Amino acid sequence: MLAKFTGLGCPTFDDYIEELSIMFEMYPTNGEQQLRDVRKCLTLIDELEKMADRLPEVPRDK
Question: To 10 degrees, what angle do helices 13-25 and 32-54 make?
């Protein structure tokens, strides 16, 4: 996670989504069914990112 190594502070939602996406992109698939499942997960991640873009910012106590 980029925030962890660069001292940028707490990881953001985007950091978590990016890490999850990379994990699935690098997932070693053993057959067509696993490949379809990984592609489905990546599609769901894309949908989650789109929905998160529409949400208002959540205020945080720092």
Answer: 160
